[in-house]
Amino acid sequence: MFTAHDKLKPSYDVVIIGGGGHGLASAYYLARDHGITNVAVLEKGYIGGGNTGRNTTIIRSNYLTPEGVKFYDKSVQLYQDLSTEFDLNLFYSTRGHFTLAHTDSAMRTMRWRAEVNKHYGIASEVVGPEEVKRQTPQIDLSCGGHAPIQGALYHAPGAVARHDAVAWGYGRGADMRGAEIHQQTAVTGIEVKGGKVVGVHTTKGFISTNKVICAVAGFTPRITDMVGFKTPIFVHPLQAMVSEPMKPWLDTILVSGSLHIYVSQSARGELVMGASLDPYEVQSTRSTLDFPEGLAAHLLDMFPFLSHSKVVRQWAGMADMTPDFAPIMGMTPVEGFYLDSGWGTWGFKATPVCGKTMAWTAVNDKPHELITGFSLDRFRNYSLTGEKGAASVGH
Ligand code: FAD
Ligand code: PYC
């Protein structure tokens, strides 16, 4: 699918660490928007093999902060044209997204989000249980009597897409324009002189470069250790699973922070499901038995008729969590080292806008206007961008 490159060149204008969606999208927009093609994407495994290929593919812009809403809205807009732009079907499917509220305090947060969303022109509204039932007739609104649904935030543009295809589309687009994608090539060290990046050590040799974009999600602390600064990122596993395929019955995307569950039905008919973060900090992609047990129990609260359905796969990714549930993007204390990180449980939807804004930031050596609220400095300045109420995943 991609041009094979046996060897690395001795130098590149830009080196991108990480061949997930974000790294590949950065290479794509460097080439498409800025004509910069002397670029290497270095991926220690295979492209899309990290969190990009492990997520539950929910795309939405119903965030809580003005910074978040504007940023994710741009991403949703970019997603609309991607299948055509790539000449590749991304199975982008607008479903409508319900964030269920089972308590008075959850209803309050939904109202808050709805008002911020409407202010920025995003289609979000608070609805009652009858609207949830109208669009998802199979649901037990009492949730087994444990947690009756009081209402929901309804976000009509909420969508799902085929995650691998997003990585392949950006990868192919970057490759066609001249960027090099090197799989099975790990970055092992970064050379910094006088506070500036001068090169990158890899398992295939040394490369000179003055610009590095780091887009490695759950591996971020290992790379920032190489350049000598710390971020407040903690890595927790996030697990997911799918059911056996079934005839289409679930049109919508349902999320419940209280029941710790999100679920949608894929184009293949599988129910795609996830829950909360694992509660311990560990850099591992092992999955556990208690995860499907807990998730199945909550799924049955909502849909008791699924009690005989089978789980066919489960897996885990490594979520790079930040204290305020917003990403860390842009400039760093090291000149020429640009960070795209802190994507935790929420970064798939941001793939297009991250690629576009990171490419711009690296070219112009200043943060793109859409990412100024996500700077690393905000933790030093006590000016956090609090998105916890919009994370969708109970923590
Ligand atoms: P990745 O796809 O993880 O890519 C990083 C790459 O860097 C990896 O391929 C890795 O191999 C490579 N790498 C690491 N170290 C090195 C090195 N030293 N040298 C070379 N390469 C290296 N987000 C949503 O928006 N919606 C969702 O529904 C959603 N659900 C999720 C469910 C789960 C179970 C998980 C785990 C995450 C979910 N997310 C979701 C979050 C989302 O998946 C991520 O935020 C996003 O995919 C991050 O993309 P990325 O390209 O930055 O990272
Ligand atoms: O960001 O919408 C999201 C999400 C849902 C599940 C995991 N992340």
From TrEMBL:
The keyword NADP does not apply. Keywords: Oxidoreductase. This is N-methyl glutamate dehydrogenase/oxidoreductase subunit A. Residues 14-58 form the Rhodanese domain. GO terms for cellular component: cytoplasm. It comes from the Bacteria. The keyword Oxidoreductase applies. One of its GO terms (molecular function) is oxidoreductase activity. Pfam families: DAO. PROSITE patterns: RHODANESE_3 (PS50206).
